[in-house]
Amino acid sequence: TCACVEYYGAALDALVKNVRIMCIHGKMKHKRNKIFIEFRQLQSGILVCTDVMARGIDIPEVDWVLQYDPANNASAFVHRCGRTARIGHRGSALVFLLPMEMAYVNFLSINQKCPMEEMKLLKDPADVLPKLKRLAVSDRAIFEKGMKAFVSFIQSYAKHDCSLIFRLK
Where in the numbering of this chain does the Helicase C-terminal domain appear (predicted)? Predict the structure, then answer.
């Protein structure tokens, strides 16, 4: 969601040093093109975006597409992944899933014939949680962005096309 992009971008900017973090979402009508052009000129960086960037956009040499929240349908998942490995370049895509969401992998392999493999975490994701909590306590803007992101994520998750897999309960 747009709110999630705002939060993830701000959190990454505070936590990840020496990497340019840029954000694009659907509510940035006028700034979106300027940010996109600026990002394309970077040697390296992280672009946090909504599905507004999933189709018809070409950014050369994208190494990774990370999907924090699962695409609303199988076709959107494929289009997100399609931002990498363009014009003969290699690329990878990663989707973060909870254990209760693993049926999505089977769904994608049947529906879209997507070859997928599990990637083991090198670190416990809980390691970053204390840093995020400290950040939210010390920075009111990050706290508010986090609250908005949480609400919008829950609303989006509740309306997911694959509601048999992505359940709130």
Answer: 1-127
